[in-house]
Every structure is written in C-alpha cells, then in structure tokens.
C-alpha cells in the first residue's frame, strides 16, 4: 500500500478530534497528472514527523499522535471524470485544490514561531501554495490572553460610548522635532481627535526626536487640549525597536506619562507583541500597525491571507489594529476587508474584540462608506486628511467629527456641510466617495 494513502494520514473529518488540531486551509496548485492525495500527505509529513522517505523510528504510533492529518482535499472545479480533465486542462496545465491539513496542537502548544515553522515552514518555497485560513481550536487559543482592553476598554478610558473613534497620525511622518510634533499634536487633539499616534516610521529613539522628550511634550499638549475640548486624548507612542529594547522602551514611555503604546507588529514579530500585551506592568492599550504584513499577503498564489494575520494579531494582544481600507490609497478587496473586520470583532472564544481602525488615505468623504461597513465599533485612521486640511489640523479634525456625528443622525455629507465650513472645505478639496474620483487623489 502506498504509505501516503494511509488512513492514519488521511482520516475522515469525523474521525479526528478537532480540539487537538490547528487546521490550515491551503490553496495548492499541482501538475495535471500529479496525485493530489500524495502531494497533500507529502506536505503534511514534511511539516510534522517525516521526510521524503521512510525512516525507521517514524512508527505508526508516532504518526497517529504527531503526524499531520489530511482532512479535506477539494479540487476546483470538482472533476470526477478523467475525460473532462483532459478536455479542460492542458498537458502542462495546473489544477488547483483546497486542502485542509490538521497539525497536532501538541507539536506547537502556544509557540507562535513554531506555528509558522509548522504551517508554513519549508513548503512556502513551493510554487502555488497559499494559506487561506487557520482554524484555531480552543485548546490552542486558551493559552493566549488577547487584548487587555479591547473595544470596550478603550471606550471606557475615553468616555466615548457609541460613536466611532477618530485617530490621527502626526504628519510629516518623520524628521520633525518634539516641539513641532507637540504643536501638530495639540491642533489635532483640540479639534476632536481621540487617539493620536506616531507614524510607523518614527519608532523608538531618534537623534532628532528623543523618545522620552516626545512623550513628555505630546502628553503636555494632550492635557492642554483636553481641558479645552472636554474630552480625553490618548497618545499611542511608537516604541518599535530591536526586540531586545522593546520592554525597556515601553516602560520608559509609560514612566514618562504615555497612556497608550504602538508597535509595528510584523516588523518586530507577533511574539514581541504578545510579550508586551501579556506583561502586567504594561498597563496601557496597545495599537498594532500592519506595515510589512502585506509582503506576506499580496500574492494570490503564495504566502498567507491577511485574515490569518488579523486573527493572530488579536490573539497576541492588540487592543486596536490598523486595517487597510479598500477605498483610499490601497486596493485590498472589499470582501477581504470585511473578513478582517469580522476577525477583529467577531466572537473568538473568550478573547476580547480588537478595535479595527482603517487607514490609508482616509478623508471625510469616506466616513459614510466606512461606517456602513463597520458600524460604530471602529476607528478612522487619518493622517494627511487632517494635517492637509486647507484650514489647518484643528479644522481637519472637526471636519471628521462633523461627518461622523451627522452620519449617525442619518444626514448626508452635503447636508452636514451646509452648516459646517470645515467639512465643506474638505469636500471641496477631496470630494465624496461614490460621487467623485477619490482614487485619483493618490499616487500609489
């Protein structure tokens, strides 16, 4: 019997305990006459107990407990007849399969690097192999604490019960002094921004902008603005750094008065995010930026779906995370964007939901579209749409608050703009999504 046809490696779905398995769903391409069962089992064996040939100590007992389990192979389209295959697929053509492979939790436990080594590992060097999703059992997820604060915790800190939150990232992205940053911070905060963050490009200490000085001056600006607007402002200070310095940077900014921290998650690694989130001394919300993550997700035939990264980011403790919206600078599909929203906010065993915030060229003319997709439990991530407003950053922030508040009352942007010059100026400059060529605003 061909060893790859063994029922130990290819059990029925009904014959496995799913709570013992992390189940990866792959898109896999194969040559026309390649055996998909052998290919799937070879992939699973490569990533668990075996290799390209049998070895003496890889016993049936070892395979039963620690080898992968192929629990689904589905060709698209679903051929049953060889004649149809030869009529539809050329001799050198490719056939595509959805393959579901279960990996024993015992092989991984709660080790994120080992999760990637197991489910991606050596096989990512193959052409036509993409991870579409990973089903995480409760036995695996229960070892992760997830967000400390999540949506409700952030709302409680800010005292905002229902409306979407407004985020601003200081622009220019980098190269400015703490004094310049504090000036821009104050103007955005006093205009009504809830959470102001550093850009992803100004992490840690910079010679021109020292970390503690940046925190002290921006927090002073927050206090000043909060007294005027009667609302609280969080400052998500970017501590992205070498992993060996992350904890030190986190404590440095918290001791300097920071009330939120930010990290470029895929630059430092998911395990680094988790270490920050699960540290009891780090008692402020964590904002996760998604930069570099798209390098894993962009190919339709290789890499990994952004939905998997969103689920892992939530598991590893992001209280709020940046999602690229499909309506601004970037072109993620709408359906994948919606799936990522659900991955942030849907029930995920006992983990708190993460607050999704949408960035990438967000303007007031996009507010209704984003709120219709996400509801009120979201945050608008705005950079140049505030700092590039023709009347200045404070007016830019007010324009967004006007758009948010008016849309919650069922008003159109044009109706709101009749009595609000800040929103009217933003619409005149950048337009309204669905009515104007918003995509034409962006050069990337």
UniProtKB/TrEMBL annotation:
<feature type="domain" description="Ribulose bisphosphate carboxylase large subunit C-terminal">
    <location>
        <begin position="150"/>
        <end position="430"/>
    </location>
</feature>
<dbReference type="Pfam" id="PF00016">
    <property type="entry name" value="RuBisCO_large"/>
</dbReference>
<comment type="similarity">
    <text>Belongs to the RuBisCO large chain family.</text>
</comment>
<dbReference type="InterPro" id="IPR036422">
    <property type="entry name" value="RuBisCO_lsu_N_sf"/>
</dbReference>
<feature type="domain" description="Ribulose bisphosphate carboxylase large subunit ferrodoxin-like N-terminal">
    <location>
        <begin position="22"/>
        <end position="140"/>
    </location>
</feature>
<dbReference type="InterPro" id="IPR033966">
    <property type="entry name" value="RuBisCO"/>
</dbReference>
<dbReference type="InterPro" id="IPR000685">
    <property type="entry name" value="RuBisCO_lsu_C"/>
</dbReference>
<protein>
    <submittedName>
        <fullName>RuBisCO large subunit C-terminal-like domain-containing protein</fullName>
    </submittedName>
</protein>
<dbReference type="InterPro" id="IPR036376">
    <property type="entry name" value="RuBisCO_lsu_C_sf"/>
</dbReference>
<dbReference type="InterPro" id="IPR017443">
    <property type="entry name" value="RuBisCO_lsu_fd_N"/>
</dbReference>
<dbReference type="Pfam" id="PF02788">
    <property type="entry name" value="RuBisCO_large_N"/>
</dbReference>
């Amino acid at each position: 019997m061909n060893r790859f046809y063994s029922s130990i490696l290819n059990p029925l779905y009904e014959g496995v305990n799913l709570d013992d398995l992390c189940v990866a769903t792959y898109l896999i391409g194969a040559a026309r006459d390649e055996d998909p069962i052998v290919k799937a089992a070879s992939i699973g064996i490569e990533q668990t107990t075996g290799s390209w040939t049998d070895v003496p100590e890889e016993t049936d007992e070892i395979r039963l407990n620690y080898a992968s389990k192929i629990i689904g192979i589905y060709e698209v389209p679903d051929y049953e007849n060889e004649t149809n295959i030869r009529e539809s697929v050329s001799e050198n053509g490719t056939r595509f399969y959805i393959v579901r492979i279960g990996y024993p939790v015992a092989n991984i436990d709660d080790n994120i690097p080992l999760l990637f080594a197991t489910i991606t590992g050596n096989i990512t060097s193959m052409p036509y192999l993409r991870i579409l999703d990973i089903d995480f059992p409760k036995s695996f997820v229960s070892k992760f604490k997830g967000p400390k604060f999540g949506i409700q915790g952030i709302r409680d800190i800010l005292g905002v019960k229902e409306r979407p939150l407004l985020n601003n990232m200081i622009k220019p992205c980098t190269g400015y002094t703490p004094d310049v940053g504090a000036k821009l911070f104050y103007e955005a905060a006093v205009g009504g921004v809830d959470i102001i963050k550093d850009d992803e490009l100004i992490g840690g200490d910079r010679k021109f902008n020292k970390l503690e000085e940046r925190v002290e001056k921006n927090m002073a600006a927050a206090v000043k603005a909060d007294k005027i607007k009667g609302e609280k402002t969080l400052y998500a200070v970017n501590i992205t750094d070498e992993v060996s310095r992350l904890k030190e940077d986190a404590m440095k900014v918290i001791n300097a008065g920071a009330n939120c921290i930010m990290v470029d998650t895929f630059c430092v690694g998911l395990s680094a995010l988790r270490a920050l989130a699960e540290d009891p001394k780090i008692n402020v919300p964590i904002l996760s930026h998604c930069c570099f993550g798209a390098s894993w997700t962009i190919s339709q035939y290789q890499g990994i779906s952004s939905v998997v990264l969103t689920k892992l980011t939530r598991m590893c403790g992001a209280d709020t995370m940046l999602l690229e919206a499909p309506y601004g600078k970037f072109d993620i599909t709408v359906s994948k964007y919606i799936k990522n929203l659900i991955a942030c906010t849907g029930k995920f065993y006992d983990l708190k939901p993460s607050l999704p915030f949408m960035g990438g060229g967000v303007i007031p003319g996009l507010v209704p579209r984003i709120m219709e997709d996400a509801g009120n439990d979201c945050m608008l991530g705005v950079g140049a749409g505030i700092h590039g407003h023709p009347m200045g950053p404070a007016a830019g922030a007010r324009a967004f608050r006007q758009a948010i508040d008016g849309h919650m009352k069922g008003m159109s942007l044009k109706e709101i703009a009749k009595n609000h010059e800040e929103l009217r100026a933003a619409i005149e400059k950048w337009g309204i999504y669905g009515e104007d060529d918003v995509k034409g605003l962006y050069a990337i």
